[in-house]
Amino acid sequence: MATMLVVVLGLALLGAKSGSRAESQILTSIDFDGSKTRLTCIFNGSDTEILGHRWMKGDVLLKEDELRSRTTQYEVDTDESSGQYFCIFLPDLGRSSVGVKGPPKIKARKKSEHATEKEVAVLTCESESFPPVTKWVWYKITEAGDQVLTNNSQNKFVVSSDTTTELHLQNLDLEADPGQYVCNGTNTEGTGQAIITLRVRNQLAALWPFLGIVAEVLVLVTIIFIYEKRRKSDDILDDEDTGSAPLKSSGHHVNDKGKKVRQRNAN
């Protein structure tokens, strides 16, 4: 058992050294050029052939090419540049992080949220800024001023990490809970915020579409019933009128018989 632990620890240390060595083989730099920020990575390692480059921000792929250069660059708008980027030399020769410092760029996952009273609503904000957010604050905009929300607030609690924050509102009240909520994030470079509008609908509101469909079906069935009833009444009247009318063929037969009698008497 002890031997196995030594082997596992040895492999872990070897992997850590390999990773740090691969990252140390890449030189990075950041250049601010007016409205653009240029990120540069230079591979300074072995003579292994490079088959391409890849740039990422978090889990998002930003750029990929098949160039064989030992230098790769990526440009981003300065106003949106804050965050941690990664340059990768393919095929997996090494990667390095490039952190661009700046105040948080806070984004609401959904700018407008709809929920039903008595249920639960979750408002979420995100930030990919660098350095990461160290303090999140939620508050509600009211006529009396900004109302700060904490885990001690009635029917509300906050769950936060470096990159996201969530405001959970339980047992929603139709009168008290609708409105505008603000998530505010702060790091060492500054602060940023986003606004989310919460709309709470009545419990019966979800039934209105169904009730509307039922009403339309009832109206349609009523119209069909009235139409069928009137059509049957008209058919009965037509049958009665036809039965009271004299038979034309009988009249012609009588007249023909009378003519024959008169002709016989004349003879």
UniProtKB/TrEMBL annotation:
GO terms for cellular component: axon; basolateral plasma membrane; endoplasmic reticulum membrane. Gene3D superfamilies: Immunoglobulins (2.60.40.10). The keyword Transmembrane helix applies. It is a single-pass type I membrane protein. InterPro entries: Ig-like_dom, Ig-like_dom_sf, Ig-like_fold, Ig_sub. The chain crosses the membrane at residues 206-227. Residues 104-197 form the Ig-like domain. Its main location: membrane. One of its GO terms (biological process) is homophilic cell adhesion via plasma membrane adhesion molecules. Residues 237-267 are annotated as: Disordered. This is Basigin. It comes from Phyllostomus discolor (pale spear-nosed bat). The lineage of its organism: Eukaryota, Metazoa, Chordata, Craniata, Vertebrata.
